[in-house]
Amino acid sequence: MSAYIFRRIFQSLLLILGVLVLVFFMVRLTGDPVALMVSREATNEQREAMRVALGLDRPLIVQFGDYMGGVLTGNLGQSLSLGLPNATLIGQRLPATFELALTSLIVALALSIPLGVLGGMHPGSPVDWLGRTVGLAGQTIHSVWLSMILILIFAVQLRWLPSFGRDGWESLILPTIALSLGSIGQLVRLARSTVLEVRRENFVRTAHAKGMSGQRVAFSHIAPNVAIPLISVIGIGFTYSLGGSVYIESVFSWPGLGSLLSNAIGDSDFPLVQSITIFIALFAITINLVTDILYGVFDPRIRQR
Amino acid sequence: MLRKLLIVVGIALLAVLPVQAQDAPMLVISLANDPTSLFPPRGADITAGNAASPLYDTLVTYDVDGNIVPELAESWEISEDGTVYTFVLRQGVTFHNGETFNADAVIATWETGSDDSNDYAQDYQVATSVEAVDEYTVQITTDGPKPLFMNQLTGWGIVPPAYIREVGIDAFEQAPVGAGPFRFVERIAGDRIVYEAFEDYWQEGLPLVGGVTFRIIPEPTTRLAAIQTGEIDIANRLSIDEAALLEGSDAVTLVSYPNDRVYYVAFKNIGNGEGSPLLDERVRQALNYAVNRQGIIDGIFGGGASLVDSFIISTNLGHNPEIQPYAYDPERASALLAEAGFADGFAISMGCPTDAYLSINEVCLAVQRDLGAIGIDLTVEFKTSNSFWSEAEYGAVGPMYVDSWSSGTGEALGRLEGALVPGNYYNTWHDDTITDLINQISVTVDRDERAALYSEIQTYMHENPPFIYLYAPQIFEATSASIEGYAPRANEGYDLTNVSKAG
After folding, report:
1. What pTM was estimated for this model as a whole?
2. Cβ neighbours of A266 in B, within 8 Å
3. Is the ipTM of this complex over 0.90?
4. Domain locations in chain A as residue ranges
5. Is domain A86-303 in CATH 1.10.3720.10, yes or no?
């Protein structure tokens, strides 16, 4: 078991290193932040002074070393456009993003697990039909388009809900629907196919053959085996929500990490883009690691691979 | 780091959003992005300027028509040589923190504004000294004659001297204090900025609303939804398409006004423009005749833009109305090309900042089609705005490129200097006559003499065009029907002092 955990941790560290390198060089392809920071009439001397002040005149490899050193010592640097430490900015925006991502995850799980499991237990039934329709819709409807339609119907036409912002629970409803629909689609299909698969396993047939009631087979043989893959899906669902929040937060003016990131990209704010991307990547990698380890704990078959 | 974040998360999850009770209604205004700073020397771009301006009063300000009028200065005198400005200051003005406004406040504003850490320090460093003559008289000396200095002063938000000297600029930015009609209450990053009416404002009975809340709404369609539902009162900088969606709505008043921004296709005679056919002025005239600008305005902007005859638009100082925009005349264009020895046309490329401006891609393609009609094989190079503007002298594109340049001063000097004085970062055209005229304008303090020079450069630039002049757009703004007393301005600034809101 511990060999398995160490292997997974080592793989995660490699992945993090890859993300750091990729992020550093990719944001530098997006342009010169100084051009966007000073007024257009600024002279060449003023531009050069700003470049020196920001450390952008140094060779790329020196900047990279500086950046890696900062990341390793927990110093994420300072935003170019907002003039505050990146850690502070991320801290300010994190609660809003977590609120939205968690709510979406809970809604997605509460709807998709029952639909998927019931559909898998009774293929071809009306519940299964509903589940498959929802699954298909969730995977094909684009969340940004859905957001705009939701705003037009529920905010502009019906005036039931606010069209933007974060002002109490009413304003959480529309972004939650928009953000969770994609996960719902994925989760319903996954839960359904897992149940179908487990139902075909030999041990289930054996349980039926030895005269166990259908209900007991479902709870003591099928449920534990369905639960295992779902653990990892919950982790994936949460990181998926974080990623999706970049679009959804911008549409709904939700003051979270996602809207901060899209602003930072627009401003060529290298340090801030790097910090947010690294933060989200670290978060996703950690969640994956934890779910993988849990997976191993619950399913002895995995450890042996 | 992570632990710190977790603590922050914990606290924030527990916190309940504060709700403020106000007697007079709050004005709610959308901003397209989170302002960089509420301290004017660090946030002088339009969004930050709009957000910060209700906090500060300035020595002089613009009226609705763009004229410079007194605010915290009651009167002023300018020395013969145009370098020494003496202001008599208003008495009985207090800052939000109770400090009294006097000459020392102007000195502190200049000192902190000139700090090299500020993005817009150059707007303050233009003054070489600021001295108190007595408590309510201040003398400002500029580095040579600066005709636009009074315009620059409209951006000097006056700050309380004791407070800013005590806490420093970084802390001031987080809790800004001024002598304006509204005082700072709170700022929630990425979400909102809240001000309340300042009860001791020096103009009795003003402001008329209980406060102002700026809401940050990056997505244009969401801004449109929010103005229709009444969640916001003012939505600015709408495109003609967006404005069209609001037509016929009872809850919304739609206004349009001309923006002081010229769109043009620039030519290079340096860098990759050296030796190109563009060096011949007949070719440049031909290109101006070849583009169907009225077609672009009608077809792409639904009529929401006007023709320009030069770099000086009709509302700018010194504009000569007798000069007419180039007509659409492809035959004349072909004749001029033939005269210049390019009867069969030539191949050239043109940069296009694909995400920078409204409908700019369509404009680039229209130019390509029109120039194609007189035999010019134009390649359009689409670039994102960042890479388009990243290189000095537009090194990434050319020898032609589409661009625009705005002005907030009512005069064309800023864009003339930026685009046409050699050595500047975005200069790509060297013409000694133009440079000489601009250098004269930039040291002529007398307004009438300056106006005459502008007319002269307008005439010259019309006959020797360094650009294909395209159009100046209209800007659309939507206000909710419940507000009164709001007038949009060509420089896109806000004056909310006299705005009232029903209910």
Report:
1. 0.82
2. 33
3. no
4. 2-73, 86-303
5. yes
